[in-house]
Design a protein that fits this description.
The complex is a heterodimer of chains A (about 300) and B (about 280). Chain A has twelve helices and no strands. With about 300 residues, chain A is mainly alpha-helical. With about 280 residues, chain B is an all-alpha fold. Classes of the chains: A mainly alpha (about 300), B mainly alpha (about 280). Chain B: One of its GO terms (cellular component) is plasma membrane.
C-alpha cells in the first residue's frame, strides 16, 4: 500500500526533524531582568503598607455594594447639576485652550515659522503639558477664589500645551502643493497660511479640540476635590463622610455622562475627518495614537 | 489671463477682469452650520453668569491677576532650596517608585485584557462585550477618583495611590493595545489557524509578536502619564510628591510649592525625553 508507505515515510521524517534552536536573545534577557528587578526593587523599597493589600478587594467590594444598594433618586438632580458644571468647565476650558493654542501652533510649526520661534514656542508649550490640571487649579484658587472659574482657567492653561503641540505637528504634516500654488499666484506669507494651510489642517485640529474636550471632562470631574468646581466636590465629600449612596449616584452619573459624551464626540470627530460619506474605511481616529505612531522631538 | 484675451494687461485692470466671474462659494453644509450653532450656543450657555454657567468674565480674570496674591508672589521668588530637603527628596522617590510598580503591574494585567478586548482575540462575543464594558467603565473613572475610593478602602499612604494608578494603567494600556490588535496583519493569524493552532496558541504565535512593540511603547507612555498623575494623588492623601506640594500649599509657602513644581517639571521632561527616544526605536 503506497498510502501507508508515504505516511510512514513522512512520520519517520517527522521523527527525525529537529526543531531549529531558538537564537539566544541577550536584549530580551536584559529587558526582562530590568523590568522584573525594577518592579521587585520598587515594590520593596516603596513605603507602602503592603499588609493592607489583601484587604483591598474585599473593601472595594464592600464600598461598591454600599454604593449601589443605597442609591436614592433624590440625589440625582444634584449629581446631574454638578456634572453639568464639570462639563461646562471642560467645554469652556477647551475653548480657551483652542483660542490660545491656535496662534502658538503656527509659531511652533517648522514649515511656517523660523527656527528661533519654533524652539521658544515648543519649550513654552512643554511647560503646561507636564503640569497636571490640579496643580494649576490649586495655584489659581487663591487668585480667583473657590469655584468653577479657577477650574476653567486651569483646564484652559494646561490643555494649551497639548493642543498647541499636536496642532503644530498637524500643520507640519500638511500638503506642500496648495502652499506652492498660493506662492505661485503671488500670495503673501499671511495669505499662504490663510488660503493654503488653514483649510487643510482645520478638520484635524477641530477633531483634536473635541478629543481634548473628552479628556478634559475626566479632568474637570475631579477638580472639585481641591474646590475648583464641578462634581468632584460632591464625590469627595460624600466619600469622605461615607455617604455611600450619594457618592454612588455621583459616580454613576460621572461614568454614564463621560461615556455618553465620548460616544457623541467620537461620532462628530469621525464625521469631521471622514466627511459626509459613511464608508467602511478604517482610519486612525484616536489622535493619541497618531502622536505615538510618529514620536517626534 | 487667457491667451486669447484681446485686452492689454495692466492699465485698465477693472475692465479686463470684469468678464471673469469668481466661482460662487458653496453654501455651508447642514452639518457645518449646525455644528457652528451648537458650538456658539454651548460656549455662551457654559460661560454666562447664570445658574448653569461658569460665570466667565475677562474683567474678573484681570482683577484677579492684578490683585496682589500669594501664588503669584511666590512665583517671583521660587525657592529651589525646597528641592534639596529630605521632604522633597522622599516625595520624588515615592512618586517614581509608585509609578514604576503600578505601571508594570497594570501593563501586565492589561495584555490579556487587550487581547480579549478585540474582536480577533476574544474567545466569544459574550466575553468580548463584557471586557469592553468593563474597560469602558474603568477608563471613564479619573485617576484621582480611583485614589479617593482606595483611600476610603485601605487608608492613606502610597498603597491607595499605587492601586489607583494600577487601575488607571489597565484602562489606558488595554485601550491603546486593543486598537492596535484590530489593525494587525491577518496573514499570520490565518497561517496559525490553518496549521491547527488552538485559540490561545494562535494569540501567542500570530497576534502577540505583532503587537508587542506597540504594547511596550504604550506601557512606557503610560509610565509618563502615571508619573504626571502621581503628582496630584497626594491631594487626597494617596502619597507621592503631591502630598509635599499639598503640605507647602496648606502652609502658604508658595515659594517652596513652585520650587517643587519646577523640580517635578524637570523630572517629567527628562523621563519623557528618555522614553520617547526608546519608543522611537521600538516603532
Amino acid at each position: 500500500m503506497s498510502r501507508t508507505r508515504t505516511q510512514t515515510a513522512s512520520e519517520a521524517r517527522f521523527e527525525r526533524a529537529v526543531r531549529p534552536e531558538k537564537p539566544f536573545n541577550w536584549f530580551r534577557l536584559i529587558v526582562t531582568v530590568a523590568v522584573v528587578g525594577g518592579f521587585l526593587g520598587a515594590a520593596v523599597s516603596v513605603d507602602a503598607r503592603w499588609d493592607r493589600l489583601p484587604d483591598a478587594p474585599g473593601e472595594l467590594w464592600n464600598i461598591a455594594r454600599l454604593m449601589f444598594t443605597d442609591l436614592d433618586l433624590a440625589d440625582l438632580p444634584q449629581a446631574l447639576e454638578s456634572m453639568w458644571e464639570s462639563v461646562a468647565i471642560a467645554w469652556l476650558g477647551t475653548m480657551i485652550a483652542a483660542v490660545l493654542s491656535f496662534p502658538l501652533a503656527f509659531l511652533a510649526a517648522q514649515n511656517i515659522s523660523g527656527r528661533g520661534s519654533v524652539v521658544v514656542t515648543r519649550q513654552l508649550l512643554n511647560i503646561p503639558r507636564a503640569i497636571p490640571e490640579i496643580i494649576f487649579a490649586v495655584a489659581l484658587i487663591p487668585i480667583f477664589g473657590l469655584g468653577p472659574l479657577a477650574g476653567t482657567i486651569a483646564i484652559g492653561l494646561s490643555s494649551t500645551g497639548t493642543i498647541g503641540k499636536l496642532s503644530a505637528e498637524i500643520i507640519e504634516g500638511c500638503d506642500r502643493g496648495p502652499v506652492e500654488a498660493a506662492d505661485a499666484a503671488g500670495g503673501s506669507k499671511a495669505q499662504r497660511v490663510r488660503w493654503a494651510v488653514i483649510p487643510q489642517v482645520m478638520p484635524e485640529i477641530i477633531a483634536f479640540w473635541l478629543y481634548r474636550f473628552e479628556i478634559n471632562i475626566r479632568a474637570s470631574a475631579v477638580l472639585g476635590v481641591v474646590g475648583a468646581g464641578g462634581i468632584g466636590t460632591m464625590l469627595q465629600q460624600n466619600i469622605e463622610f461615607r455617604n455611600w449612596g450619594t457618592a454612588g449616584m455621583a459616580l454613576i452619573v460621572v461614568v454614564l455622562v463621560t461615556i455618553l459624551i465620548d460616544t457623541i464626540s467620537g461620532a462628530v470627530r469621525r464625521r469631521i475627518i471622514r466627511g459626509p460619506k459613511s464608508g467602511h474605511d478604517k482610519i486612525i481616529l484616536d489622535p493619541e495614537k497618531v502622536i505615538l505612531a510618529r514620536p517626534s522631538r | 489671463m487667457s491667451q486669447t484675451d484681446p485686452h492689454p494687461t495692466g492699465g485698465t485692470a477693472s475692465s479686463t477682469t470684469a468678464p471673469v466671474e469668481r466661482p460662487k462659494k458653496p453654501r455651508p453644509s447642514l452639518f457645518m452650520a449646525g455644528g457652528f450653532v451648537v458650538l456658539v450656543a454651548l460656549t455662551i450657555a457654559t460661560g454666562a453668569d447664570w445658574r448653569y454657567g461658569v460665570g466667565f468674565s475677562i474683567t474678573d480674570i484681570w482683577d484677579g491677576l492684578t490683585r496682589p496674591n500669594a501664588p503669584m508672589r511666590g512665583l517671583g521668588e521660587i525657592d529651589f532650596a525646597a528641592l534639596t530637603g529630605a521632604r522633597a527628596r522622599d516625595g520624588f522617590l515615592e512618586t517614581l517608585l509608585m509609578a514604576l510598580v503600578s505601571t508594570i503591574s497594570g501593563a501586565l494585567v492589561a495584555l490579556p485584557l487587550a487581547l480579549f478586548n478585540s474582536k480577533l482575540g476574544a474567545p466569544n462575543r459574550v466575553a468580548y462585550a463584557a471586557i469592553k464594558l468593563f474597560n469602558n467603565i474603568i477608563r471613564s473613572i479619573p485617576d484621582l477618583l480611583w485614589a479617593l475610593l482606595f483611600v476610603a478602602a485601605v487608608g492613606i499612604g502610597a498603597l491607595p495611590g499605587m492601586l489607583a494608578l494600577f487601575f488607571f494603567s489597565i484602562g489606558v494600556v488595554t485601550k491603546l493595545t486593543s486598537d492596535t490588535i484590530d489593525g494587525i496583519n491577518h496573514g499570520p493569524v490565518e497561517a496559525a489557524r490553518a496549521s491547527g493552532a488552538s485559540h490561545v496558541q494562535m494569540l501567542r504565535t500570530a497576534v502577540l509578536p505583532q503587537v508587542l512593540p506597540a504594547y511596550t511603547s504604550f506601557s512606557m507612555y503610560c509610565f509618563e502619564l502615571n508619573l504626571r498623575a502621581s503628582a496630584v494623588l497626594g491631594f487626597v492623601g494617596a502619597g507621592g510628591i503631591g502630598s509635599v506640594i499639598d503640605f507647602y500649599r496648606s502652609h502658604g509657602q508658595w515659594d517652596r510649592v513652585w520650587g517643587v513644581v519646577v523640580g517635578f517639571l524637570i523630572v517629567v521632561i527628562v523621563v519623557e525625553r528618555i522614553s520617547m527616544a526608546l519608543r522611537r526605536r521600538l516603532l
